[in-house]
Amino acid sequence: MEKDEIIILKNVGFSYGDNVVLENINLTVEEGTILGIIGPNGGGKTTLLKIMLGLIEGYTGKVIVKCQFKNKSGGYHHNCMGYVPQHSKVNKQFPATVYDAVEMGLYGLTGFKGPTKEEKEHVNLLLEKVGIDKIKDCSINAISGGQLQRALIARALVGKPSVLMLDEPLVGIDQTGVMAFLKFLAEVKEKFDLTVVLVTHNFHAMTITADQVACLNKTIHFHDNPEHLSKEDIAKTYSCEYDAFHAHQPG
Amino acid sequence: MISILKYQFMQNALMAGLVVGVLCSVLSVFVVLRRMAFIGQGIAHAAFGGIALALLFNLDLYITTTVFCVIIAVLIGITSRKGKLSEDSSIGLFLTTSMALGVILLKLRKEYTTDLMGYLFGNILAVSRTDVIRLFVLGIIVLGFVIYYYRQLQFFTFDEEMAQVSNIPVKFLYYALLVILAVVIVLSVQIVGIILVSAFLIIPATVALLIGRHFLQVMLISIVVGVTSTLSGLTFSYYAGMPSGAIIVVTMFVIFSIVWLIRRFVWKKE
């Protein structure tokens, strides 16, 4: 059965001055699937993610995001997208407990009055669902990287988004941790009825988890089911032979 | 304490110190957590150019300096946010140019500028009742803004990108914060001076972050540190006959040192 497209990119390009970062990107994300974007460092993965999130302006082409998103006059009740940045980039000195950090995900929706009792209960339920309810009163500088990542995912989910975007969530996690995280992500996707877009270096993780893979190095070299990915596609994306690429992959 | 309240200039000074202490301490939480300390310094130094402009053309000192500093603050924001220049280069550019402009303008002024040291290091004795009223009005506006946007400012300070994705008006908050910072700095310069105003925007929150676990706790502790050091510093400077700005900053540093030592050796963080 054909799935609805939730994100559509048509001929998207982006440059920093004379440095072309992305060119001629045509990509669709189907609702309810996991899209893995892989590619080398500097290949434009994070830039593409940020364009989809609306964090970067000044790109060429067209980006269409079809979230069930009500505007302010219609009294919006959820965010279109949830974003999980790299946990290593979070300012851990910020004075917040795990609960505080997760509740913040609601602040764009609640305005001056703050979260209602029901919304606070929703935060607590979410903490339980992602398995960090026992550490909710701990400061964010006192928890592990894995726990912080779960807190960031809970923060992204608290606004009930349609799409969850994750930037390099597997960095700094060992192979056992990677498998556990992928299992957790698949569960979260099912539980919350999400579409997931994931940027990563970890090629093997993507072949296990993703329904679709996009190989990106300035432009899209492959976009399909990972089973159809050939050695030639990898060689084109990483500008090196498959064996050399394989030797440098984790796991 | 009672005896110094006999004099109107000390009443004015203490009331002005109270408002400046509260405002700078509230802003210092954003300045420290968003790593905007250098911006604060840039705006403070830009005040020198504004003051010189007002003196040369006999313009209203507050209005001219405030407008000048707000323009500089917004220019720093635009150039660094658009990515054309790095933030520190952009601040360095405007900071030094404003100072240089100030020196040139003061040179063009034929009269001798007697109160230059007052602008550089603060002159609390020159605070009038009108200044105090102006500070109270400004204080209400700034605190009203912070209270109204409290949650949004908190999220924006913690993680600007996720805040933007979550419908927080990050651009508005960024420029509003810069404008408020510029206005508060201009009004604080009279008390503490261009050179030392940065301490007001850094030390209270730095102390508070050693103690507080929640954002609100940090903000309240920061206010207590700022107000306590400002009022005790002013009182001490009156009896010791010392410059108020310098005494307040040293008092803040003493509080920081005590809290840091307690945190390091007695009440260790979790």
Identify the notable features of this structure and list them briefly.
heterodimer; A: 251 residues; alpha/beta; Rossmann fold; 2 domains; 6-stranded mixed sheet; 3-stranded antiparallel sheet; B: 270 residues; mainly alpha; ABC transporter involved in vitamin B12 uptake, BtuC; 11 helices; 0% strand
Polypeptide structure, described:
The complex is a heterodimer of chains A (251) and B (270). With 251 residues, chain A is an alpha/beta fold. Chain A folds into 2 domains: 1-67 and 162-251, Rossmann fold, CATH 3.40.50; 84-160, no CATH class. Helix content of chain A is 33%, strand content 25%. In chain A, β8 (212-217) and β9 (219-224) form a beta hairpin. The two termini of chain A are 34 Å apart. Chain B has helices at residues 8-33, 37-56, 61-81, 87-108, 116-121, 129-148, 150-158, 160-165, 170-211, 215-240, 244-265. In chain B, 81% of the residues lie in helices and 0% in strands. The longest helix of chain B is centred in the C-terminal third of the chain and has 42 residues, at 170-211. The model of chain B has no long low-confidence stretch (mean pLDDT 88). Chain B is built from 11 helices and no strands. Chain B has a domain at 12-195: ABC transporter involved in vitamin B12 uptake, BtuC. Chain B has 270 residues and is mostly helical. The A-B interface holds A 16, 50, 53-55, 76, 79, 81-83, 85, 90-91, 93-97, 100-101, 104-105, 107-112, 114, 138-139, 142, 155-156, 159 and B 33, 83, 148-149, 151-152, 154-155, 157-159, 161-168, 209, 212-215, 217-218, 270.
